[in-house]
Amino acid sequence: MPGDGINPKGFDNLDKLFKQLAVDANVSLAAALFASAQDVANKADSLVPVDEGVLRASQSVTPPRAMSANPSARITYGGPSAPYAVVQHERLDYDHPKGGQAKYLEEPFLEEVNAWPTRFAGRIKLASRYLR
Predict the structure, then answer these.
(1) Backbone angles phi and psi of 115, in degrees to 5
(2) Span 92-120, pLDDT tens digits
(3) Alpha-carbon distance 102 to 129, whole Å?
(4) Distance CA 118, CA 112 (A)
(5) 107, 113 in Cβ contact below 8 A?
(6) Dihedral of CA 32/38/42/43: which sign?
(7) Is 62 strand, coil or helix?
(8) Structure pTM?
(9) Three-state SS at 119
């Protein structure tokens, strides 16, 4: 899956940012990760292939645990029909006459990651304001 093991450039300055903000780094990081996941999920929903809308309705966003040593957020589609969701995501040759496209999750994810670390640092700052 896209994102496994991604280490975008510029994250070396996040420790400095956390110290400047004087807030719990884990909580701020978790909130920023969840905001990023929600943004990706919202964009993905507009790209999900539509037949009857079942795939779009199956989206799930799992927030990170704030105190985890390796916080991560998860966006999934398909539930028990995950194999169907994977096929719809990967098959570039499928026609979607009612709308949507392949790579419906990958494209918004890559857009989000390409905006890091600037966008992510902004999300951390915003989260820290709410936590104070």
Answers:
(1) -90, 0
(2) 999 999 999 999 999 999 999 999 888 98
(3) 37
(4) 10
(5) no
(6) positive
(7) strand
(8) 0.79
(9) helix
Per-residue pLDDT band at 2 (split at 50, 70, 90): very low
Structure tokens, 2: 């896209």
Per the structure block, which two tokens stand in for 4?
């496994």
What is the DSSP code (8-state) at residue 69?
S
Q: Are 44 and 60 in contact (CB under 8 A)?
A: no
Give the closest residue to 18 by CA, choosing from 119, 127, 113, 112.
127
Residue 119 is encoded by which pair of tokens? 């966008």
Closest CA to 106 of 123, 91, 121, 117: 91
Q: Is the pLDDT of residue 45 over 90?
A: yes
- Pairing state between β 74-76 and 60-62: antiparallel
Close Cβ partners of 3 (under 8 Å, ≥ 6 residues apart): 109, 113
Q: How far apart are CA 44 and CA 38, in angstroms?
A: 10
- Mean pLDDT of the residues in the chain: 85
Peptide bond into 2 cis (omega under 30): no
**9-48: b or e for each residue (b if 16 or more CB lie within 10 Å)?**
eeeeebeebbeebebebbbbbbbbbbbbbebbbebbbebb
